[in-house]
Amino acid sequence: xxxxxxxxxxxxxxxxxxxxxxxxxxxxxxxxxxxxxxxxxxxxxxxxxxxxxxxxxxxxxxxxxxxxxxxxxxxxxxxxxxxxxxxxxxxxxxxxxxxxxxxxxxxxxxxxxxxxxxxxxxxxxxxxxxxxxxxxxxxxxxxxxxxxxxxxxxxxxxxxxxxxxxxxxxxxxxxxxxxxxxxxxxxxxxxxxxxxxxxxxxxxxxxxxxxxxxxxxxxxxxxxxxxxxxxxxxxxxxxxxxxxxxxxxxxxxxxxxxxxxxxxxxxxxxxxxxxxxxxxxxxxxxxxxxxxxxxxxxxxxxxxxxxxxxxxxxxxxxxxxxxxxxxxxxxxxxxxxxxxxxxxxxxxxxxxxxxxxxxxxxxxxxxxxxxxxxxxxxxxxxxxxxxxxxxxxxxxxxxxxxxxxxxxxxxxxxxxxxxxxxxxxxxxxxxxxxxxxxxxxxxxxxxxxxxxxxxxxxxxxxxxxxxxxxxxxxxxxxxxxxxxxxxxxxxxxxxxxxxxxxxxxxxxxxxxxxxxxxxxxxxxxxxxxxxxxxxxxxxxxxxxxxxxxxxxxxxxxxxxxxxxxxxxxxxxxxxxxxxxxxxxxxxxxxxxxxxxxxxxxxxxxxxxxxxxxxxxxxxxxxxxxxxxxxxxxxxxxxxxxxxxxxxxxxxxxxxxxxxxxxxxxxxxxxxxxxxxxxxxxxxxxxxxxxxxxxxxxxxxxxxxxxxxxxxxxxxxxxxxxxxxxxxxxxxxxxxxxxxxxxxxxxxxxxxxxxxxxxxxxxxxxxxxxxxxxxxxxxxxxxxxxxxxxxxxxxxxxxxxxxxxxxxxxxxxxxxxxxxxxxxxxxxxxxxxxxxxxxxxxxxx
Length: 844
Hints:
By secondary structure, the chain is mainly beta. The chain has two domains: 12-37 and 532-843, YVTN repeat-like/Quinoprotein amine dehydrogenase (Methylamine Dehydrogenase, Chain H), CATH 2.130.10; 146-524, YVTN repeat-like/Quinoprotein amine dehydrogenase (Methylamine Dehydrogenase, Chain H). Strands 21-22-23-24-28-27-26-25 form an eight-stranded mixed β-sheet, with no helix packed on it. A five-stranded mixed β-sheet has the order 3-36-35-34-33, with no helix packed on it.
């Protein structure tokens, strides 16, 4: 059971309180919610709106250096106040030296080793081409959500997961989307249904082209929609990654550019020329295909502006044409001439007729405090170019600019709409920035940003006409048209030549407006778009069909057996917990608050907020004791971690008495609670962000805690983020546990405590061991405790000998990060929550 507490979107203004909810229970007001200290002058804090709230702690967890527990902490480095405020949650007093160095190839190297190990395991039973599983074998099966009904939009449109790119073929029937963590999907019916194109991973375990599901950009050949280019690695998160971890590789970068010539049946990885920096481990913002030569493609990436050129033998190579981060590239063709136009982070727009030689475009473009730029142009008219510009300092709107004539001057378009509303002086233009020009009206543009200030805070999408004004241009008749779409808009694109079809890609999937220039509303086009980012799951104790999951930016969803789940609670979904003695009682966590339902949590009206704990980490752990049919009262005990405090309730979150509040003791570096596991209602194990482990025991005088990681007989050998703890059910004294580590820098990811001392249980050095990637979840089979399972950023791994050796677990599981593992003990099922492809199960 993964008890990790990070990777969550922080958007306080979009927290929705169901009707009749109350902030705290009666009698609990004597406790003050935890408050996060806000560094003076900091731009991002743990309560910051937008992706900063969940990406930055994610990076800290993923790239914190794992080191020997007796090694001295890295010396302080006087980091920026913003970074210090985040670091204080993890390694107090340390600087950037506490982060592990990570070469750009680290993801590909680990993936290669995983594929080698998996190929050796399943060589005799390879999957059929295009199939995600092995016929007649034991396979992972998808449980959804393929989409979530009644999502967080005005009108309750169905939602999917985060989408970073959309490519539409002429006519609007064939559509491709690039999901930020779920790979590529295709629709053959204008977005009414979708199918994954990245599920051939078991057909050839040595091929990597269908392995990296992190996607940032997608483009097609307009003359042959089966030729598709994809840039792996998500550009929308790049600025946060770069600011946070300097030159280290961020999580979930890509393996470079990939291509299909058959509509996604097969994929190939394309390479960079030897004298150009590699695109492995980088991220893509946009791709533009030359309408006259489909082999001539330009990419805006985190490593610069790159051009694809065909070589002999039908191959192709990518060459860096300009260094530094480029955030946008568009293409137009007129009078037999192709024009590429691109923008760099920080200012500067350039153009090229061939993709190889680039020169500055226009004059007078702003340069001071310029952040991300998104460009817009009609496909047949390079003479009018728009630029939507965000501020580097705040993420708010810098302005909209227009250039008429390739040699003219850029002019401000005055009175722009509130596409990037400020909250506490900041916004998220580094994450949400989209622009499309009406194909038949060059004076009409569509702008996309973060959210509209309408409950439940849906998409900020604006239609605005541009008219001449003194010395430039101004907007007229601006209208907000995105309220029926989900917030956080990453891409807006028209069907080629069609002013009446405007597509939106956002944190809630894909939406389509068939009359954007009139009174049309966006409608969810997410049937089958199974790319939702699941954080944690909870299960009904006896009915395996009923599950809950907390979703990144899509609240909490529930299913009773259907692949399309139902949205039941708002906010940014975290942990869920079902009372195993009374399944009508359910808890869910969102935005620092625990909500409770007493009628099964079936819809929005089911939930009341029972306590706001403060938002110390993005998804704070919520857990209960193991199932014990002989003592149903045990199911009422609940623990919640919040900073260095643990709150315990004995009436299933009805009250939080002072006797149940545990303050972790120790040095100033105790960190924040990141993992919780009950051995019984009277024994709780606790892991923190700084590698501290505690055992709390309840006696006649109340709860007492002792520290375990520094055990005299043998201490825990690593220091770092403890991402999960699980009980060893073979020990009748309930004194033994397994734990796993996040971070980077050591393959010894799973450790075992036998009640006296710690031992590494990650396999032997040199073979049948675990990989040096973040491990997020560990679970022990109660019926056969020698069987231990871990979920990692690459794969689910199984040990049948209590951690002595490890191997990848079977077939059919997409290679998305696994954030949670749960065993349904009555049905003998292992379930995995993936960040990007939903929930899967496999029989034990």
